[in-house]
Amino acid sequence: MGFPYESASWDVVDGAMFVGAGGAAPGLYTFVAAVICVVVLWKGNKSEHDCYAKVEK
Amino acid sequence: MEEQLAELAAKLAVVESKSNVTNTMFAETFYYVTIPLMILIHVGFLAYEMGASRTKNVLTSGVKNILAFAFVIPTFYFFGWWVYWGFPTGLTFSEGPAGISGAAYANAIAWGWGESAQYMGPNIVDQASGVFFGAFALFAATTASIMSGAVIERIQTVGFVILAVILGSFAWVVAAAWGWHADGWLVTQFGVHDFGAAGLVHAVAGFFALGVLIVLGPRIGKFNADGTANHIAGHNMPLTVIGLMLIIVGFWGFLMACVIVPGEAWSWFGDKPSTIYGTPITLSALSFNILMAIAGGIIGAWIWTKDPFWMMSGALAGIISCASGLDIYYPALAFIVAFSAGLILRPCADWLERRGIDDAVGAVTVHGTIGLYGVVMLGVFASGFPALQGVAGEAPTISFSGQVVGAVVFGLLGFVPGYISAFILNQLGMLRTPEAAEILGLDPTKVPAQGYPEGIPASLQPAE
Question: Which of A43, B38, B237, B262 has the least C-beta neighbours within 10 A?
Answer without folding.
Answer: A43
